Every structure is written in C-alpha cells, then in structure tokens.
C-alpha cells in the first residue's frame, strides 16, 4: 500500500539525453548516489539516493523529441479510475495506465492549461523515501496561464482545498489535502500564474523544488558544475528559493528554509 495520500506528490524524475552527465551533476550538487546497475528492460531507469533513501529518478531519453525536464507524479490508489476522472474534469490523458513490472502503474496526463504531470499507483516502488530534508523533494507548483480552468480541475480531481497567497506581484494559490485547513502549513503544492517574467513561448509546466541548507551556495555550485542560474536566490513566504537549470538544461528549483 502506498504511504502517500491520494493526490499527494509522491515521486519526481528528470529526463536527460546523457544519463552519466546527469549523475555527475546531481551527485556532486546534492550528494546523491545511484543504482549500481540499471535494468535495460526499464530503459536504464536510475534511482537516486541520499543517505541510502530514495529521493528521485533519472531517465535516459529514448527519443530526441522528448523534453529535457523534471516531472512530478501524484499518488493514486487506482490509476485507471483516476485517468477517467482526469478526462471528465477537462484534462487529457497522454499515456494510458501502464504496468511497470512489480514497481507500480504509471500514466501521464495534462491539465486543461497544458501542464503535464504523471500519476503513480505504487507497487514495490512506493515513491519518495525522504522528503523535506537536504537533497530531497520539498515542493512543486504548476505554472499556468489559465487559472480559471486549472484551479477547479485540481480541486475537483483530488479534493484539494485552495487558498490564495496574499503577496504583491504574484498570483499564487496553495492546495492542501481534503479535510485539512487551507494554508501554507498544510499545503502539498501550489499554483502560480505565469506573468511577464515568463517568456511567451514557455509552455505551462510543473516546477520541482529540492530542499537545501544553503540556497545561495547551491546556486553557485550548480553554475560551477555547468548548470545555470535562471532566477537568482530570493527570500519569499516559503523560504529562500532559486530557479536553476542542470548541465543539460532541465529546470528545477531549490528551497532553503528560513528561520
């Protein structure tokens, strides 16, 4: 049985053209270690670990048309039923539920605004074994231009309780699990409206955040390792954050909790 509630972010992975280069970058940046042997039958999918606990996945691109990007997965107890609800709520199923050996069942979908996400029905692979600790997942948000359709989509699909964040210059909403009081303290993920800071050609997307103890230092280290600082460190309601790109162009964010 999965230990993540329905709709909770339960896994994240990055699709890369050069798996070895990705292991070098993330291994140095976050002190990750990796599967000693990746199975050819699963496309050499590689699990990353921090202190022996599973924190993320690295995927070798099989097709050059695939984006070099991080992806997020939401937990479900029934992938087939969830994909049906996705279509009924106005989303689109890109890849129907597929059994991944003994590990679980996955599907890929897009919300009404076009942001792509995965769903995961756990088998032997339950998802993250470490979260909100250094070098592990801590947050995700969907960047969209269509909140009028996207907000009710996720709130009806998973029963999320939404609350707008009172902060100037951004249109941001947090989502808490069904039955929880809304707010930052209980939130699982967020929604951000893409404004002028986003290039018009950038599609709606999810941004994955990894927890760090030193946001500024991590950003500098990412640049030293061949990555890029897309948005320099800034202090926010949630903590100090920076948006980075790895040495192959996949974007992610880092978050340092502030006292």
Automatic annotation (TrEMBL):
Report the Gene3D superfamilies cross-referenced here: 2,3-Dihydroxybiphenyl 1,2-Dioxygenase, domain 1 (3.10.180.10)
Offer one Pfam family short name for this entry: Glyoxalase
Q: Which InterPro entries match?
A: Anthracycline_SecMetBiosynth, Glyas_Bleomycin-R_OHBP_Dase, Glyas_Fos-R_dOase_dom, VOC_core
Give the PANTHER family listed for this entry.
CONSERVED PROTEIN, GLYOXALASE-RELATED
Give the organism the record lists: Streptomyces sannanensis
Q: Where is the VOC domain?
A: 8-122, 136-257
Q: What is the protein name stated in its UniProt record?
A: VOC family protein
